[in-house]
Amino acid sequence: MRTRKLSRRGFLATTFAGGAASLTLAKDLFAQASGPIIIGHHCDLTGVISSWGFWHDKAAKAAVDIINKAGGIAGRKVELVTEDTESNPAPGARKLRNLIQRSNAEFIVGSVHSGVMLAALPIASELKTPYFSTGEATEVTGAKGTRFSFRTGTDTYSIAAASMPWCVQNFGKAWTIIYADYAWGQSTNQESKLFIEKAGGKVLASIAVPLDTKDFVPYVAQIPAESEVVLPAFIGSLSVAFYTQAKSMGLDKKAQMFSSSASLESIDPGDIQGAAESVYFFENFPRMLAHKNDQYHKEFNRLIGIDDVYCREIGGTRVMDKSHGWQAWEDIFAIKQAIETSGYKTRKDIEGAIQALEGMQMKNSLAHPQGDKLIRKEDHAGVLDCYISRVENGKLEVKKRIPKEELIANMPLRHNLSTLPV
Question: What are the angstrom distances between the C-alpha of 271 and each of 274, 300, 318, 323, 406?
Fold first, then answer.
């Protein structure tokens, strides 16, 4: 029996079918169009987290391009409008108003900077525009959440819920948390402490570090000698400085270190001279293809332009923020699914789109290459498979998979955003 080779066009049609209403590869593209659907991207292109923003920008543009080539959303062309948050809450807030009030964005793929997204959410809610957070501060789908705030990835609450039971059991009960003193670091400290104690451990010290710190020696010196596990929560240059200086002080010989993927995003462990070797990190999308080895993951890597081991840019030096950058791609497909499911046409239909997002299930596909997931109806939080990985010879090797069913069992509902008004 002859096997017909699937063309790339056919591959895209087949793989997208699992993520939403199937993409129609019609000859007469945009035949049902009544004007474009405008999606805003509140993207951190400059500033402290721009090394991540580069990938969010690239992923969002690639998603829109592939959707438009396959017929758009409900037969309408998609226009992506991007504003730079500058990785700063004040200009970020102004840029969000620009996206919604000047560029007429109907849905927003949001910032990965927790301070920016927390400043953005009240504006998005005031202007009745769904905002997909890609940062980790849990307040966006928690105490400060609204009917308009959504998340497909993990936050500090779900990271702690997924990882701490296993980490306390395997690494030890005596913990120290050392964190960057801003929204994400503070949220990491709060949620991690809660779940460490729930798992039978104890936090001996929580050490807040100012964002302008260069010399970590005084802070590392505060870590109690009896600490069995140290949880660092830093990003970018702060993270590099911490791991480098902590290793020079021999911290890696005294305690096991475990952190969120955020502490190693857009950083190749090999580029920091082994400072992160043997450290464990939480991931929600394995950096290495080998640990989720399927056609959708492989094709996503190809479309984004990264290698299958280190997530390094093909022909370049940048490293993708793999456990965050995928959200800029998948959020656009979630928006597509909500629009097509609800029959959304204009802003007056926004409540129907929100209802479609609440409880939305997404299947492993090219539209959702991270894997099967759902947006929990009540708190709009992403529920997805998670991983605990260890740096070994400069590679992130998965040691533990936490299925989404285990995550949701460990993550009791705290807030019901679905009952709030639109």
Answer: 8, 24, 11, 19, 34
SS (H, E, C) the chain: CCCCCCCHHHHHHHHHCCCCCCCCCCCCCCCCCCCCEEEEEEECCCCCCHHHHHHHHHHHHHHHHHHHHCCCECCECEEEEEEECCCCHHHHHHHHHHHHHHCCCCEEECCCCHHHHHHHHHHHHHCCCCEECCCCCHHHHCCCCCCCEECCCCCHHHHHHHHHHHHHHHHCCEEEEEEECCHHHHHHHHHHHHHHHHCCCEEEEEEEECCCCCCCHHHHCCCCCCCCEEEEECCHHHHHHHHHHHHHCCHHHHCEEEEEHHHCCCCCHHHHCCCCCCCEEEECCCCCHHHHCCHHHHHHHHHHCECCCCCEECCCCCECCHHHHHHHHHHHHHHHHHHHHHCCCCHHHHHHHHHHHCCCEECCCCCCCCCCEEECCCCCCEEECEEEEEEECCEEEEEEEECHHHHHHCCCCCCCHHHCCC
Stated pTM of the model: 0.92
Number of neighbours of residue 330 by Cβ within 10 angstroms: 28
Scored b (16 or more CB within 10 A) or e, 46-59 reads ebbbbbbbbbbbbb
What is the tens place of the pLDDT at every residue in 341-364?
Answer: 999 999 999 999 999 999 999 999
Whole-Å CA distances, 318 to 48, 237, 247, 306: 15, 14, 24, 9
Q: Which residue has the tokens 């609440």?
A: 358
Q: Which of 132, 190, 193 is nearest to 353 (CA)?
A: 132
Name the token pair of 268. Answer: 């190749």
Computed over every residue of the chain, the mean pLDDT equals 94
- Strands 395-402 and 386-392 come out as antiparallel
366-417 tens-digit pLDDT: 999 999 999 999 999 999 999 999 999 999 999 999 999 999 999 999 999 9
Q: How far apart are CA 30 and CA 40, in angstroms?
A: 20
Question: From CA 256, how far away is CA 388, in angstroms rounded?
Answer: 14
Please state, in angstroms and rounded to a whole number, the distance separating the CA atoms of residues 321 and 311.
8
Question: Domains of the chain (ranges plus CATH)?
Answer: 34-154+322-384 (3.40.50.2300), 157-283 (3.40.50.2300)
List C-alpha distances in Å: 409 to 402, 405, 413: 11, 6, 10
